[in-house]
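User: My collaborator sent over this chain with a note saying "see what the structure looks like." That's all I know about it. Can you take a look?
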Amino acid sequence: MGSLLVHITHGPEAPTRAALGVTVAKAAVDAGHRVTLFLAGDAAYLVKDEVIESLQGIGTGALRETLPALVDAGASIFVSGMSSKSRGVTGDDLEGKGIEFAGPPQLVALTFEADRVLCY
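Assistant: Without extra context I'll predict from the sequence alone. Here is the result:
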């Protein structure tokens, strides 16, 4: 199987687009691919508990179901430290979720390591 990087830059302001990216990542991991999810820009909000519980895309599923399923399946999940800082996302928001802070160098490295990259 291959490796897929899903880079999401949309958050609660575009719930269908944000949820679709996570849903596609889950479909890939369910199919046996190695999946990495990188959240940047407004997607940094997607790690906050209140957003996880409430975000629902139109026809793209609920974040409260897909994001934890990705973690449970062993997907690597990163959130931009720069995007997080400017949006008030802290280490407390990541605690116990299997999500790590990362920066542009890590995103570049992940991009070149992946067989395919999808952006939402």
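A starting point for your reply to your collaborator: The first helix runs from residue 15 to 30.
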